[in-house]
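Running this now, will post back.
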Amino acid sequence: MLLDVRDIGLTATFASLYAILVVVLAPISYGPIQLRIADCLIPLSALFGWPVVVGVTIGCVVGNAYYSPGLYAFLGPIAFLDIFLGPVANFIAASLIFALRRHRLLACVVGALPIGFIVGGYLWLFFPPPEVLEFLPMWIGMIISITISSLIAIAVIGYGLLVALSKPNIIEPLKSRGLKVVSS
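Update: finished.
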């Protein structure tokens, strides 16, 4: 795989967009009940490929690191789990969507699952699960909560964004300006 300036620029754009959306929408981007709107960018890996996979991974590092000094002061070294495992979850999710790009809706549903399981699997250490799920063990309640929010962000909002941006009247001008679009 050969990287060119456009790939690097697209990676930087997606990393920036992801981090900005996480930080600006911080009240809903963090916690036991979260809707990380930035995750709607992950399905675009089906359209733009590896630059998006890498971009949403880097953006997650930046977005999570933005809040980690406060978390570290409150929770100690465990806060670094979020800086490391959140981006790993994004990388796996975006890679799965890229690999399954011929079946976009299925790819978005499958791509939401690693985020739910990985992030929910450690987030219960930071916060208790939502009250609605308190009858379950804490870690299961958190996995369910984060999986539901990931499905909304990725399989609903992100899939809609992917469909909208995949239209020929959007894609053709991008291609004519040299942007690489992954063929499905």
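The mean pLDDT is 89. More later if anyone needs it.
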